[in-house]
Design a protein that fits this description.
466 residues; globular; 3 domains; Serine Threonine Protein Phosphatase 5, Tetratricopeptide repeat; Rossmann fold; alpha/beta
Length: 466
């Protein structure tokens, strides 16, 4: 009983001070950890933590036991590709137009430094006039040992497992202890031991990366963090979370862009110029998203399922809606047509109308898998996780080998911390696409190829196995 009370007290202190929820980390034997760190003087140990800051020896010893510092260079490379190809060009263009060459970037939970150094390398590769820019790039972490390691900048071979030899030779020099980051890259990053919940190192950030941190936060602390991120970012600034994380608070303040396998969030500006990418577009989008939807003059086109589908793939939603409405007028009993019209509405954030068309499709054919799948993605976009999960399960009931539903269910379970279930669904998706030709589409409402989905699922599995 005394131990349980002490555990609850310690858990409360850790949550209030750092946001971390030890109970979310099933690999940690919390009672054994408390006994070990307190040397048997549990009450004294807890009082000391309560009355000291996170930089003291006892706090740091505890944080090292609770935080996961395993990372590597260019982890989840698709994120760095998006920064280079999508986020930075928008920022760079505006800054050059205003002759204001500065960038502020924050890597939260930077661990031993691989992420902020990867960012620094990405910046150097992207900015042709790199030397003219004033770049303030911060890496912060609660763990002083990890921050000291980051400042040292020496890494062993395992940290480079997803990089090329050319990458290593270009940005590192060999030493007896490992590869040392070159000074021009190391000097770009300022590392600090800091608590996220105490605020940012600098206001007015352009980009914030906080990957696989909120997974271990309590709901209340995650909300505090989201408020900090929103207040810290410039209008239309970017927030990048881990692939298995999502914002859960005041989502109307953000525009979510969902590229294949990678959600990114943008703080709304006074007039939001970027075109939001909704969940259901994930498998119609590819490497980049246009800032403005091209408007094409409407020409007379014979209304067929294929012409409507092509209009959707061309992101010509006005034309697609016209063609699909014409098809429905000609035949009101074709369930796939209602699904396609729902997709058009969903892609334009007209979710109520999308739901109505999905009702029509499911009434005609209760076992139409793509309708349940699309409804699941709409629920995800609306922040209704439980309803989304039910619809994705219904998709697999209708079509056991629906790889997109398996992939998204895996992501949902990963967000909830249930990695065994997530892995099960990811492996189901992998098994399905393994039997397809690489260039084969995985769904009648998708341009996503089997080869591309295979890569995405493999990356998810590898990320969690790491």
């Amino acid at each position: 009983m005394v131990l349980n009370t002490s555990l609850n007290q310690l858990n409360d202190i850790i949550e209030k001070r750092t946001g971390l929820a030890p109970t979310k980390q099933p690999d940690i034997d919390f009672p054994a950890l408390l006994k070990s760190l307190s040397n048997g003087n549990i009450r004294e140990y807890i009082n000391h933590l309560r009355n000291s800051n996170e930089n003291t020896h006892d706090w740091q010893e505890l944080l090292q036991a609770l935080t996961i510092n395993e990372t590597y260079f260019l982890r989840e490379k698709s994120h760095f590709d998006l920064i280079s190809a999508h986020m930075l060009p928008k920022l760079i263009g505006k800054r050059r137009a205003n002759n204001d060459l500065h960038l502020n970037i924050w890597s939260v939970g930077c661990a031993s430094g691989e992420e902020p150094y990867s960012l620094a390398i990405t910046l150097k590769q992207t900015l042709k006039d790199f030397d003219k820019w004033n770049i303030r790039l911060f890496g912060t972490d609660l763990n002083t040992t990890a921050v000291n390691s980051a400042q040292r900048g020496v890494y062993r071979k395992w940290a480079f497992r997803h990089t090329s030899v050319d990458f290593q030779n270009r940005y590192f020099v060999p030493t007896p202890d490992g590869l040392l980051i070159k000074p021009d890259i190391r000097n770009l990053v300022t590392f600090r031991t800091a608590n996220l919940l105490n605020g940012p190192p600098l206001p007015q950030m352009d980009i914030i990366l906080c990957r696989n941190v909120l997974l271990y936060f309590t709901q209340a602390s995650a909300r505090r963090a989201e408020v900090i991120f929103h207040d810290t970012l410039i209008p239309e600034g970017w927030l990048l979370l881990g692939q298995s994380e999502t914002l859960g608070y005041k989502r109307d303040k953000w525009v979510m862009h969902l590229f294949p396998g990678t959600p990114i969030y943008q703080k709304r500006g006074a007039v939001q110029q970027s075109k939001p990418i909704s969940s259901q577009e994930i498998f119609l989008a590819h490497d980049a998203v246009p800032d403005v939807i091209d408007t094409k003059p409407l020409q007379r086109v014979v209304a067929t399922y294929d012409t409507a589908l092509q209009a959707i793939h061309d992101e010509d939603y006005e034309r697609a809606e016209m063609l699909l409405q014409e098809l429905i007028e000609n035949s009101k009993k074709n369930a796939p047509t209602y699904v396609m019209l729902a997709l058009v509405y969903a892609n334009r954030n007209r979710f109520d109308e999308a739901h109505k068309q999905l009702d029509n499709a499911i009434e005609l054919d209760p076992l139409i898998a793509d309708a349940h799948y699309l409804r699941g993605t709409v629920f995800m976009e609306e922040g209704k996780t439980e309803e989304a999960s039910k619809e994705l399960h219904a998709t697999l009931y209708c079509q056991r080998n629906h790889p997109l539903a398996s992939f998204l269910l895996g992501n949902l379970y990963a967000q909830q911390g249930d990695i065994p279930k997530a892995t099960k669904f990811w492996k189901n998706a992998l098994t399905t696409v393994t039997n397809l030709q690489e260039d084969s589409p995985v769904s009648s409402i998708s341009d996503m190829s089997a080869g591309r989905l295979h890569t995405l699922v493999s990356e998810q599995l590898a990320g969690w196995e790491d």
